[in-house]
């Protein structure tokens, strides 16, 4: 039952409802938390882990794996707990557009009282290392407090807020942190606009909250739609916020630990490398904007929401796969192209790099049309590498079936087309240092040739209905 004393989007409410959360006591902040989390992601049913009694810290906790199962992600997205991977994607289809449209009906609700106000720290007393910030990976350049965070910025003209999930490395012995806002993303656009108009940019950051804010902060919410209002649409309730007294920007009232402050064009620190979602470290240390922290609030014994990336599967690769699969399917259908059966953004590609789409072929050129559209959809365009289009008898979520279709239904010289100078990322391990972040992507037509649909060799497998009968009759043998 929901604790009515907890604000909406409280991480503690989520933990009380999640069920499959394991307590881990006595782990060390330096690599051990990250290694335990990494091993947990590879379990058949990955649990969430709540680290407590962290070595060297009398208080402060860290949560990992918050969205790594159908149950926990279903609860996060308010779609229910009783789901499989496929039923969760099906339940999510159509929802992002509905939530975006409804966001305006859920404006943030400023409040003056919240549990996070229990402790307020200002000036020289601010020290992020008073909390058990992990060093997640062996070759990380430092301790990253921002992995599951929500960085709030605003448009200086319209006032519309944006919430993004950007990596943040602790700097200056805990007094500040770099904010690696991704170029081209809405938060980076806001920061640039503030710099141009006012010479500095206000920022607030939440480091512990309902993982719904993690999910939205790492997803392409439409420009001009506040992630906090979008979260209200998902939850069906206006999100209570504390307005930062220095910046005026909102802070989720359900947050565990928050800061506010300013970014300035000349205020930078060296940051990185960091083990990123591609599965590789992100290159050498480089200068990034550093947050001048003016104020810090935290609850007693606060919980940091950790979401360390790495080689998939990682902390949020499952979440991204589910969200992207539903969003890509919806966007394909919205183009008006017929015959879309299923889309799947594979976890092995971090939910972005490798996408499969199944279709019912309707006309000559249909498969190529779907492939090229998919590669440039808003939900799929960022750092996509491969799109594979298959017939409806192939499950695009099954990598074995996809590889079989590629192996038996393509002529490499005829069925692989390449798009060039497309939207890449500076996180791309294939991008040479300092190069402009373009990439290329392959569209693989792994459908049976249109002109041979009637004569293409028949698949050598039994009728599915007959197989179901045999499985039931011989359950003792087949399990």
TrEMBL record:
Output the Gene3D superfamilies linked to this UniProt entry. UbiD C-terminal domain-like (3.40.1670.10)
One of the GO BP terms on file: cinnamic acid catabolic process
Name all 3-octaprenyl-4-hydroxybenzoate carboxy-lyase-like Rift-related domain ranges. 113-312
Q: Which domain of life is it from?
A: Bacteria
Q: Which residues cross the membrane?
A: none
All residue ranges annotated as the 3-octaprenyl-4-hydroxybenzoate carboxy-lyase-like N-terminal domain in the record? 14-91
InterPro entries the UniProt entry points to? UbiD, UbiD-like_C, UbiD-like_N, UbiD_Rift_dom
Q: Which residues form a coiled coil?
A: none
Its protein name is Decarboxylase UbiD
Select a single GO molecular function from the record's annotations and give it.
Answer: carboxy-lyase activity
Ranges for domain 3-octaprenyl-4-hydroxybenzoate carboxy-lyase-like C-terminal come to 318-446
Q: Which NCBIfam families match?
A: UbiD family decarboxylase
A single cellular component GO annotation: cytoplasm
